[in-house]
């Protein structure tokens, strides 16, 4: 029997109730009543880390799940967190002026691509392992604080048994077996964004992004919000309905990990980068899920021309509504990391504030990303090491952190590079070199510079 996770109604109700608790609807009596009906019928809560549900539901429970999801969707969030671009811009008093793009140093674009690849690769074998386990593995192998690839060599059996590697990644992402950059959704989405811009140019639309997904992105390579949006496209829904129909993952990290290329294509112009990220994000996300993408794209745009991390984070926050949950989380994380040199203590504070969120939510991971950037202060190893040590979405947070750190530094240390070959299931990209991707990214701005 093939049973996809992230799409069955009975798997989604618990997540939607959790989303309601986060976006201000949880205290409403009608939401509480829906939760009572679900639990009284035998429905399960959202699992905190794994995507799998307890198993197929009886048809009666599945039908009830669909009804409850639709009822929950009809209850709007009371929080002032808009999803439309005009409202977002209006709510950002520091929204940056659109600026003429500059040609960045080629080394910065290469550094961004290599940094993203290296950060992703560092986090892959420990994805889904909590902070405690990541530290135990790193300490046992002489890699704490994390400053290099993970390894199984010398790892005591009792630690290996208690904290097993990510089963899909360990074969290609440990120091002893790395041979090029293995496939990952955090890299596939960067390739897709590049494809969108090469095919459709600067005036691309959300519909162009959707068509590119359907043309090139295997359904088995999408998860959470992207899987829900993909399903909705196949049902005939159009954006932005694709982001909201039975999609309780719409504020999770998926849109943030798709945003880097929109920044790299707009060096020094965070406003345009953020608006492009919005076009992409609205296919599958709303509110803070969209803000995370805009935040990342703006930082990536500024990282190609900036002199320090503070300038980069300032650019990112300028495109996020300051009253949003994401903006508040980032500001607090930045303050903590600036005041506390021990990153474990910084992470403790992040978990105290955001530990209730799912490990692939946007808000906690964006806060971790910002804290890692401040803590690393331009040092590549310290930056990606902190992002992974945070223990939430390890490969995603470290990929974006590495992208920014690599761009700021104009490259990554040689020990963080691999054989120049990137694996991908996307048509035309399997085996592509990072160097060629950097060249193609630089070419995006040629001929139409304002």
UniProtKB/TrEMBL annotation:
> Where Mg(2+) is bound, by residue?
393, 395-396
An example Pfam family from this entry, by short name, is: ADP_ribosyl_GH
* Positions of region (Disordered): 39-59
Domain of life (superkingdom): Bacteria
What InterPro entries does the database record attribute to this sequence? ADP-ribosylglycohydrolase, Ribosyl_crysJ1, Ribosyl_crysJ1_sf
An MF annotation (GO) of this entry = hydrolase activity
Task: Write down the SUPFAM superfamilies for this protein, in alphabetical order.
Answer: ADP-ribosylglycohydrolase
Cofactors that this protein relies on: Mg(2+)
Q: How many cofactors are bound and how?
A: Binds 2 magnesium ions per subunit.
The protein's matches in PANTHER family, at most eight in alphabetical order, are given as: ADP-RIBOSYLGLYCOHYDROLASE, ADP-RIBOSYLGLYCOHYDROLASE-RELATED
Record's protein name: ADP-ribosylglycohydrolase family protein
Organism this protein belongs to: Microbispora catharanthi
Q: What is the lineage of its organism?
A: Bacteria, Bacillati, Actinomycetota, Actinomycetes, Streptosporangiales
